[in-house]
Amino acid sequence: MTHRSTIISKKNTTHPEIFQRLERCAIANQKLAEISSSQRPQVVQWCQKLPFMTTIMWQLLHLCLLAVINAKGLDAIY
After folding, report:
1. Quick check: 62 and 23 in contact, CB under 8 A?
2. Residue 9: other Cβ atoms inside 10 A
3. What are the phi and psi torsion angles at 24 (to 5°)?
4. Residue 46 has pLDDT above 80, yes or no
5. Cα separation of 49 and 57, whole Å?
6. What pLDDT shows up at residue 47?
7. Is 1 helix (H, G, I), strand (E, B) or coil?
8. Predicted local confidence at residue 44, as pLDDT
9. Of 72, 56, 70, which Cα lies nearest the Cα of 11?
10. Dihedral sign, CA of 23, 29, 61, 71?
């Protein structure tokens, strides 16, 4: 496999949704940490964490599905 075929595209980091979605992930992750530090039983913690874990997975899925930019022209830069 050549270098050219391994790097076909890169994510478009200028997309306006990226940082909004990452911020939502960070907030949900902070909530997960707060729940983990509580003294509640593990089953209760897991039930409390479930919506936040779902939020993080949903946001990351959206980030993975964002349009990519063609990186063939970027070969000279790298």
Report:
1. no
2. 12
3. -60, -40
4. yes
5. 12
6. 97
7. coil
8. 97
9. 70
10. positive
Place of tokens 């790097």: 7
d(CA 43, CA 49): 10
Cβ atoms of residues 10 and 77 within 8 Å: no
Six-digit token string for 14? 């200028």
Mean pLDDT confidence for 4-25: 71
Q: Which residues neighbour 15 within 8 Å (Cβ) at sequence distance 6 or greater?
A: 66, 67
pTM above 0.85, yes or no: no
Q: Which residue has the tokens 């391994």?
A: 6
Place of tokens 């994510």: 11
> Cα–Cα distances in Å, from 5 out to 59, 71, 76?
28, 11, 14
